[in-house]
Amino acid sequence: MQQLSLNTSITKQVNAVAILRKLDGILLDGQHSAFAEMRRMMEYLEARSIWMHNADSHHQNTTSFSPGLTNEVSDTDIGAYSKAVELLESRRTSLYTIVNQFRALFSEGDPALSEEILRKWITHQVLMVLKNLEGYLENISDGSGVKALLEQAIFFSKRLSDEGADFVSSVLRLFSNSVESHFVKSMTTAFTRLSSTLDEEHQVSIDWITVPLFVGGASISVRSSDLSSSKGNIEMSAVATDLPPPSQLLAFPPLCYYLNSVICVFSYLRSCPLLSVANNVKQVLVDETWRIVNLLIERAVFLRSAGSKVVGDVARGKQHSSPNLRLDKMYAEAVAFDLLPHMFLVYLLVFRELDSSAVRRLYEISVEKHRNSEASHLLSPSTNLDGLFPVESVLKNTLVSCWHKLAEYKLVQIE
Predict the structure, then answer these.
(1) Contact call for residues 353 and 390 (beta carbons, < 8 A)
(2) What pTM value is reported for the model?
(3) How many C-beta neighbours within 10 Å does residue 115 have?
(4) How far apart are CA 167 and CA 170, in angstroms?
(5) Helix (H) or strand (E) holding 210
(6) SS3 breakdown of the chain: % helix, strand, coil, rounded to 5?
(7) Tell me, what DSSP letter sits at residue 335?
(8) I want to staple 80 with a disulfide (CB 3.0 to 4.6 A). Which of 46, 139, 197, 222 is the partner?
(9) First to last CA, the chain
């Protein structure tokens, strides 16, 4: 049995199994031969499993090959991707070899029994591979790497399907869950950062100055500490090249960073487009939209309650200077008519729910506003949304509902 756990040829395996059969024949005196054969099958598969795992360790310690990844990915991505690919390559070859050797060695006897034992063993090995892949996927943030790994996993599954072990559906479920988890985590992180940066943006006690943040002379009050930061240098990804982000958002650094995070995660989705995640991603996007709207409303209510105190202080001769009483409306308009429309349209573009005429129209609108340095928003309440969004679009209805909700608190005007 120890010899079977090494990298031995089929000839040596045949000799080892033959010796085991002779020993069992002597010890059992010909009795319980069926039970003895079943035990030999299980011991053989256990020994070959040891050999397979040792081969995996050898491959992962000697390789640094990372095909399928785009440039400028992190070392963590490369390491996890390389290990995952080597795992699939090694297991695909090893499992196929073991299955064929097992059938050659145990072709005699009850075929139903041998196939049942083999099927359970393959199922266990596949579950272990999927569990390892799940761990590797958590450390891969590059969408192209996830896509390349998905292709490798599907090829692995189809290769084993010839042996009656097709698990493509399990692979797709694993990758769908991983992509959704990455999207939810990224959106949650982006919202947390937005909330914290808005806290800083609304500090009343800071000295405010007026600085133009985009071409055209339009200006907004920003803190002097922001001038030395890189908040105006917003990194845009591949999605943004197809649908330019609203330049008006450059006047609102927290919203710029939030949109940049959203575009990055949609670039991840676009690199690994799984239609199975579209509906769940859409629902997460809707939920995050309402979180932003409710956040703005909560801050507006707080500022107005604080404003009542300011009015009382002014009546008693105290002086106050707070731009927040006006800033909340400016942020609400930027969110309602620039940020949310762009987020929704990027989703439609990534999942191909946006036809070419709508993309062309949006691109022309964005480029024209940028060229003319207009300070107007990407969309407005008078925009014909039916010409941009699909009929009965959940996102379109959500956008309109958000507009009305913000209008209730007099943060935007929609009439």
Answers:
(1) yes
(2) 0.77
(3) 14
(4) 5
(5) strand 208-212
(6) 70, 0, 25
(7) I
(8) 139
(9) 82
